[in-house]
Give the backbone structure.
Amino acid sequence: MWHLIPLLLAAPAVQDPAPVSQPVPPPAPAAQSPAQQAWTAWQKRLAAAQGLSLGARMTLEDSSIPQEELMPVAMEIQLALARPSAGKATWTTVFGEGEDAETVVLEWIGNGEKIYAVDHEEKSLSVEGAAWNESELGFFLPFLGPTWSSASLTAHDVALLPALAEHPDWQGLRIRDAAAEADSGEELAEVRIWLGPDGLLRRAVSSLGGTAVLNFEVSRMELAEKVNLKQFIASFPEGYEVFDEESGAGEDEAGGSSLEASLLPVGAPAPEALFIGMDDAEFSLSSLRGKTVLLNFWFFH
Amino acid sequence: MDVGDEKSVIADYWREKGFTMRPVRQKGEAVSNAFGVQVYPTNYLIGPDGKVLWRAVGWNEKTLRAALSPK
C-alpha cells in the first residue's frame, strides 16, 4: 500500500551562501553584514582546526544577527563539516517481484575532493559534487537501514546517517524551522555524522537557541565495529571514462538520473489526484491550489 | 505554516524519526502512475499555481533550494 504524504510548506528565503570549497578569504572589508562576518569567522576557525576534534564545542553568539540570517550560515557550516569526502557507498535494491524483479545497484566514489556516481555498465564515472550530501546518495542513506552494520554500505565522512537511528546516541535528523521552534517552544537540533581522520565516526549536533546563538557540539559515536578509514578510501576503477563537469543546481532537470526519466518535468501542470485521508475522507490535489505542496511517495509494507 | 512567510524553512519529516507529514492513500496506483513514479522515494514539489516546481527521486537539497530561491 502506498502512502502519499502532502505537506504544506512555505518557500524559504535562500541567501547566496559563501562558497565552502574555497580557501579562507583574507579579512573582509567593513561592508560585510553581521551574518557574513559570522560566516567568515567560522571559516577561519574550521580552517585553523583542520577538522573538529572530539569534545569540541563551539558557540557562535551574536545577538545582533536575526535568526533567519544565521540559518544559511548554519547550513553552510554543516556542509563544511562534511568535507573532505572520501570513500565508497553502494545502494542495492530490488524492484518488482518474481520474474519482473530487477536489481538496481547504485554506487558512488569519493576521492577526497569530489564525489562520482559509478556506472559499471557504461564504465564511467560522473561527478556529482564535492560532498556526499550533494550526490543522490545524500538522500538514499536514510533508507539503507541495517545495511550499515552488514558492511554493504562503506562509510564516508559526511552527514545524514539515520541508518544509525537505532543507536542510543542518535537524536534523529530534523530540519530546523526557527519560526516553528519559537512557536512550539521545542528545541530542535540538526545532527550530522561523518568519518573523522582517525577512522572514527563523529557526530555533530547543532542547535540554534536564544537570540542567534549557534551551538555545535562534537562527540564520538560508538559502533559495534570500529571503522577503519583506510578501508574506505576508494580508488577509481581502471579503464573507466570520467565525466568531470558538474551540472548546475536546479538547471538541468532533463539531464537528471535515469531513475528520474519517467517523472513529470518541472513546469508541467501537476495532474489531478485524489487522496484519501487518514479519516477516510477524500480530497483532491486541486483543492490545495494556492499552497505549496510537497508530495512524498514512499513505500510502505 | 503560513505560506506567505518566506522565512520558514522546510519542516520536520518523519514523526518517529523527525517527520511531521500528513499521510494519505490513493486508490490503486492512479496517483503514482499519473506522476510517473517508478522508484521510491520520489518527491514532488507543487507550486501554488498547480505546476511542478521541483521533483526528484530521493532528496536533493541543492536543487530544491535552487528551485525555492526567489528569482
User: Anything to note?
Assistant: The first strand of chain A starts at residue 2 and ends at 8.
